[in-house]
Amino acid sequence: MTVNLKGRSLLTLKDFSKREIFYIIDAAIELKEHKAHGTLQKKLEDKNIALLFEKSSTRTRCAFVTAAVNEGAHTEYLGKNDIQLGGKETVEDTARVLGRMFDAIEFRGFKQETVELLAEYSGVPVWNGLTDLYHPTQILADFMTVKEELGTFENVKFAYVGDGRNNVANSLMIGAAKVGMDFRVVSPLSLFPDQDLVEECEVCAKESGACFTITDSIEEGLKDCDVIYTDIWASMGEEDKIPERISLLKPYKITMGMLKKTGKEDVIFLHCLPSFHNLQTVTAQKYPDICEVEDEVFESKFSRVFDQAENRLWTIEAVMVATLT
Ligand code: CP
Ligand code: NVA
């Protein structure tokens, strides 16, 4: 498949076509195989990459660093207290400085506008490592995992259960519309996705053959599903909403009973992580009802969450190589 992504940014999955998404997933699968065979090539030697993090991260940060090292590039981690971004210096000026020194910039933070300004003013590819609105690199790893497990996206029935208006839900919906899946958002009415985004995705779905169901009914949403996906109930920056979200989302906690409702013996469970699935973390001890998934499901044979976490590395590496070479 010939696809040229050189010089392009990934600010939202809207930026990539179906063909480009498929290309990245296939390239990521190849990189994973190369690593297994010891045949990875260093395609990004002499490249310098800035990693800007306003919010914390385990997977995304480690994926960007290890992907860069695999390819021979150098990374510089710039945390929220390390640079002036938006504090003593405008995002526009920071972008122009970073663009003179680095070949690409990753940004994780709050406002989508920040990542867009970085792309507009830096003159180098910018990758969105998560904002309040979108998490595009996550979805590439999720879809790579679906491809590895199911071999296809055609006729795949994929249910996202939980906070239907967060960054992961938004990006899954865009991705599903592009690749043509039967996608369901199962959440309480007050957490339904933004109607403008639904309408935008429905236009895209007409071309790809995707279909959407937005429902508060677990029965309707999970019927015949191949994939059940959830995320934490209060995203980074929404910590004050935890009690409210627990009372809204408790009926949507993923249980073995819910997996059975799909009627599929080989249904898979996905989660972007981090997850509350037991009471062994400080936050879960403070809010014992915070778990969005039962430990039994998380640790079950249906769970592919750690394959999905590993695939963050390969998909991010594929995006870096494709946009920089
Ligand atoms: N899934 C994900 O983005 O994880 P981190 O927050 O650890 O980067
Ligand atoms: N919705 C979550 C995703 C974490 C990877 C958050 O924004 O915190």
Task: Give a short summary of the structure.
The chain is an alpha/beta fold and 325 residues long.
Strand content: 5-15%
- What would you call the shape? globular
Helix proportion: 40-55%
Sheet with most strands: 5 strands, parallel
**Any idea what the CATH architecture of the largest domain is?**
3-Layer(aba) Sandwich
Question: How would you summarize the topology of this molecule?
Answer:
Blueprint: H1 18-37, E1 48-53, H2 59-70, E2 74-79, H3 91-101, E3 104-108, H4 112-122, E4 126-128, H5 136-150, E5 157-161, H6 167-179, E6 182-186, H7 195-208, E7 211-215, H8 218-222, E8 227-230, H9 242-249, H10 256-261, E9 268-271, H11 282-286, H12 295-298, H13 305-324
Parallel strand pairs: 1-2, 1-3, 3-4, 5-6, 5-8, 6-7, 8-9
Bound molecules: phosphoric acid mono(formamide)ester and norvaline (NVA).
The site of norvaline has 9 residues, from helix 6.
Question: Could you please describe the fold and organization of this structure?
Answer:
There is one protein chain. The chain is an alpha/beta fold and 325 residues long. It folds into two domains: 13-134 and 310-324, Rossmann fold; 139-309, Rossmann fold (3-Layer(aba) Sandwich), CATH 3.40.50. Helix content is 44%, strand content 13%. It is built from 13 helices and nine strands. The protein has helices spanning 18-37, 59-70, 91-101, 112-122, 136-150, 167-179, 195-208, 218-222, 242-249, 256-261, 282-286, 295-298, 305-324; strands at 48-53, 74-79, 104-108, 126-128, 157-161, 182-186, 211-215, 227-230, 268-271. The protein has a five-stranded parallel β-sheet. Helix 3 (91-101) packs across helix 4. The mean pLDDT is 97.
